[in-house]
Design brief:
six-stranded antiparallel beta sheet; homodimer; seven-stranded mixed beta sheet; 33 strands; alpha+beta
Chain lengths: 619, 619
């Protein structure tokens, strides 16, 4: 029952409501946190009690299911009775408006993704929801880090509004806990589309739009006690909002320092011992089951009876085709169980544990007074989801979402690609050194190695031999004309250029090629399309537009998957080696927080030294 | 570091503070709940980080201890470094102003009593703190139910203020999460000193003084959907405050209904199966280790790897001599471990689990960013506590509290006994029936049986034969003159009368005797003393004053124990049988929520029928 109905019916009736209450109800939520999607819905307690006692008719009863009880780890028989979107009882004999026969399937609480970026799906929020909800997802903790780096806070507001417009009957089919990105820009070494300093962070975190502070990737800043960084985390603490972490390799004193900033979670550990230390120091460890990174195998053996409540599941970054083929958090459950984690503990990691970590009261369990978010699965090994209820409304069945949304594309996220004058000449690399630093990307990883290669220049441009390509990062937010140039070894591409407007975390244009004119054409195509993936060479010009901030497509998931596969196959035909995703690997070559050598629009960057470096090498 | 210091030093420095912040800091606490003792203390995050990185000097380092890690269940070696009352690191090599050698003892997080009534100790709050803190207690969830039933909200404010005045150096040695009593009066069948209706409950719960809503004993009211009762629970939910439960024997539909009211906890289960059901339905079960009631033996075998996070420890009601002899929550740990629960799980029940249940962020673990509340124990079987730190200050050592408090006795809790004109004639029982209902108290229990006894009246008063005594409940709040009269079988007392002003839950005077004049004298003594325990007979007149609201003594714990023992021994010499505590058993004979036959100032009460009944029986 919604706020206004509640106020009219219940409190006004018994004369207890004060005018001030309306505001308070919005400020203080059932979750105990005054933010996110949990703020405005409140129910009539008397109605719930009457339904629990069978004095009144429930809205829904799900019969014939077996309930996975996250408090005990046991499977139990019982009907689940729902009123006003809330579970009122586990039992039998409930009168109800609607009945659903679960036919012996297992009911689990609605799944919660503890950390994800909608942008990495390349889908709009509404299209992502239509894909994820049929897999049992009822809530996500979403960090619109990429959108905000391009569009500023309006990028987050777009996500908020796009999800808010989704309706399945009276309910939103997916609860979205929106984190305010903490690192905009991710580093001062690149040009992003927006800057969110500490003051802006304080102002935005005060708003109900934001559930918490997104992953704090600037762990060196935290550990160094940088004033702006610390002030952002203090704001989160003061507003009682959770701050997420991102701390690869951070252990020992540095981990202690990072935790002193009140950071609750991490999903970036590199080893079992690091994960063990983070658990011991009180972090919640988010087991990431994404497209590029997967920690299920490393984490599963670390789960014990004493610590299993400290693990959460998340996808972080997962592409649409992977979501379509393998699923969402249901896929993570499947993986954990395959690696030997008990189904109960795996399910806890995607339900109750997440709710505990983020203080989402009334979430993550099938029990009286809990929100009626639940999924029916065939078994506890494959976790094939056959039905999903959100606040007691059937929102998906047999893989099909039972909701739709009108397209929503506000001006803030359209036409975001603004580049200066770029010609073939822009990609000339004039070197007067005998050797140069080149980036070598480890296959199937995001880490690059620095290799020193001999180079020869002719006519003011380097000659590309021995598997060398040029890499360019073209600033695309303010048409500043900034272009960073570098060399990449053994990517395999020849006879043209490819480029993409997704480039973590500032999302400038990243272009790889062995032909200056083709590289310029790729920039032109991306500019005209408002961002996307583009390919030029061997007589072909192809572009797949990412018309939402240059990051995501307004097309359907199927179209996105098809077009991505098509243009990737074209790039593969131009020689891109196996072990690299032609475009998505590019998207990480401009990310100056992952070792070792990266390129931004401002120049070549040595991540280990955390400073710019030269392309040419003298000695 | 306190609010003002923080504002001056940190935010003012980097220019980020807004005037509105000062208010926000008080409203939103580090615990995520905007209430209780967690509201006003905030620290300088930069300082903590610098100390964690050993760039700055810590306030305290505890060396040479072994740390019980509640996240992993393991014992680990390491120094605990503290700055501004917060743990900044586990490690080694920290520079510090003060060092403490733990000498190989085990460090556990400060213990938290999840549910207790200070009044049952008969000690003032400050005297209770001096007794409990040396046993490792760093926080309590206290429900001043008895005081508020006598004095109204001023009774709770007294507790709040008395605890607030305690200081060990800069810190409060005990955090007190004060619950607003939910049942004042406990039932409409008796006269209490105050009434807290739904509107008053809403107003009071809005205040920071109150952490949550105290145990909802009126479970029939909840289950029936009584408007006033439901409105109280709705207020708790809306303010994001936890509501505690009290639901003996409530299972099935009734339990579901009770939970729909948002109640989080229970400590009143009667059987293992009931406890199992409550855990499965999502309640936190508080294992009570008190003076009269102890559920450790029943609960211990129910604890599993999957459910141990759902148990909490509490004392509920424990008398001063028991606290002095056996300890507080350390005693509960000892009992749980003796019954086979692993030390790690037992400690979790008194630390991390409580913090999770009540959303006390930063409590219940020894880890960076957690408040430095901890205790050193000799081992994990006896849990003998040798040192206790509160916010990093040593507040107790070798059983001695390192803090004191000036006596605080505001007018609100003094001179609270107001009785009308009472003479020997007031205790005459005129019966014209051949038989009467008498109460028989089961030895070592609070439950009474109804027995039908033959009676004979002479001169307008019943003749006491066959082990009968008279019981009177004399209204003492408003001098209304209300007196309820009944018969008690086989209590053993003869030749006088005894009486007490502690009488759950309305705390009228309860007087038992076989001599009308002696009963009147007992009332006179209690009136003159402002409440207490009194005894008259065989030439003796004795009274032990309970000068704080007629419930507690302003004397020291030792004096309270000694005087209680002395007057109880005198009563025993008047024949009170073993199996009854002469005075404390009386204190429960006026409690109309425990089966089966009870007496209030308004008359004899049939708890099973939940209505008054007659003393005389016709047939």
């Amino acid at each position: 029952m919604y706020l206004d109905t509640f106020l009219n019916k219940s409190h006004a009736e018994n004369g207890l409501v004060q005018p001030v209450f309306a505001e308070k109800l919005i400020l203080y939520s059932v979750s105990g946190l005054r933010c996110g999607p949990f703020s405005v819905i409140i129910w009539d307690m008397k109605q719930l009690i009457d339904c629990a006692m069978k004095r009144a008719e429930c809205d829904l009863v799900i019969r014939g299911g077996r309930i996975l009880n996250v408090f005990t780890g046991e499977l139990e028989e019982g009907d689940v009775a729902v009123k006003d979107g809330v579970i009122v009882g586990i039992g039998s004999g409930y009168p109800a408006k609607t009945e659903y026969d679960a036919g012996g399937k297992i009911l689990i609480p609605g799944l919660i993704d503890a950390h994800m970026h909608v942008e990495s799906t390349m889908l709009t929020p509404e299209e992502f929801a239509r894909l994820a909800v049929p897999h049992g997802t009822c809530a996500i903790v979403a960090d619109p880090h990429e959108l905000v780096n391009v569009c500023g806070v309006e990028g987050a507001e777009y996500v908020h509004e796009a999800f808010s417009r989704l309706r399945a009957g009276d309910v939103s089919p997916l609860d979205v806990c929106l984190q305010l990105p903490s690192c905009v820009p991710a580093t001062p070494f690149e040009t992003s589309g927006a800057v969110l300093d500490a003051r802006a962070t304080q102002e935005e975190l005060a708003k109900d739009t934001f559930f918490g502070l997104g992953e704090m990737m600037n762990y060196p800043g935290v550990i160094a006690g940088d004033a702006q960084t610390v002030a952002k985390l203090e704001a989160a603490q003061k507003f009682g909002k959770v701050a997420d972490g991102h701390a690869p390799g951070v252990v020992g004193d540095a981990l202690n320092a990072y935790l002193c900033a009140g950071i609750a979670t991490d999903h970036e550990s590199l080893s079992a011992s690091e994960i063990g230390e983070k658990i011991a120091r009180g972090m919640y460890v988010q087991i990431r089951c994404g497209s590029s990174a997967n920690n299920a195998a490393v984490c599963a053996p670390l789960v014990t009876a004493e610590n299993f409540r400290r693990f959460l599941l998340c996808m972080d970054d997962k592409h649409a085709p992977d979501l379509m083929e393998h699923g969402h958090i249901d896929d993570a459950l499947r993986q954990l169980v395959a690696f030997g984690v008990s189904p109960h503990r795996a399910v806890c990691m995607a339900t109750k544990n997440v709710a505990e970590c983020y203080a989402m009261r009334g979430r993550g369990a099938i029990a009286p007074s809990y929100v009626a978010d639940l999924a029916a699965v065939d078994d506890l090994t494959d976790f094939h989801v056959s039905a999903v209820w959100k606040r007691g409304t059937l929102v998906a069945e047999n893989g099909e979402a039972k909701f739709a949304a009108a397209p929503y594309l506000p001006a803030a996220v359209r036409n975001t690609v603004h580049v200066g004058e770029v010609t073939a000449e822009s990609f000339r690399i004039a070197l007067d050194c005998p050797r140069a630093r080149a980036m070598y990307v480890r296959p199937n990883e995001l880490v690059t190695e620095q290799v020193i290669v001999p180079v020869e220049s002719r006519g003011g441009d380097v000659v590309l031999t021995d598997g060398l390509c040029k890499l360019a990062v073209v600033e695309r937010h303010f048409a500043s004309g900034n272009i960073g140039l570098a060399l990449v070894k053994d990517y395999g591409l020849h006879g043209g250029a490819i480029g993409i407007s997704v480039a973590h975390d500032s999302h400038n244009l990243v272009v790889l090629g062995d032909d200056n004119a083709a590289m310029a054409s790729v920039v032109r195509l991306l500019k005209e399309a408002g961002g996307g993936m583009a390919l030029v060479g061997k007589g072909i010009e192809e572009v797949f537009p990412l018309d939402v901030a240059g990051l995501m497509s307004s097309a359907s998931a199927g179209q996105v998957a098809g077009k991505t596969a098509h243009i990737s196959a074209l790039a593969r035909r131009m020689g891109v080696k196996e072990g690299y995703d032609p475009f998505m690997t590019l998207a990480f070559l401009a990310l100056p927080v992952i070792p070792h050598l990266k390129l931004t629009d401002k120049g070549l960057f040595d991540v280990d030294a955390f400073s710019y470096t030269s392309l040419g090498v003298e000695e």
